[in-house]
Write a structure and sequence with these properties.
1 helix; 6 strands; 92 residues; mainly beta; binds zinc ion; 8% helix
Length: 92
């Protein structure tokens, strides 16, 4: 899958472990999500919101489970472009 950021950069989602992608569960859905992960067929991905961050402008592209897309622009140009990196990347 490819999509264009508001700045014109093309982002792709065609592999695993993307450093600019994360998933979010609404707090209202958290308990249901955690319970779903303990039994087959596994974690209920229908509860996941997907987020991408543009490495060029830092804009967040938020994709709700129903498919609605919203963009959020950073408050200024100094905002990290790696907000969605693994917590392991913060260890060093
Ligand atoms: Zn961008």
């Amino acid at each position: 899958m490819k999509f264009m950021c508001l700045c014109g950069k093309i982002l792709t989602d065609n592999t695993d472990a993307l450093p600019y992608k994360a998933r979010m569960v609404a707090d209202e859905d958290w308990d249901q999500f955690m319970v779903s992960c303990t039994k087959p067929p596994g974690c209920d991905i229908r509860l996941l919101t997907t987020i991408y961050q543009c490495s060029h402008c830092g804009c967040l592209r938020i994709v709700k489970p129903a498919g609605n897309v919203v963009f959020f622009k950073p408050e200024d140009e100094h905002v990290s472009r790696t907000l969605l990196r693994s917590v392991k990347s913060e260890a060093g």
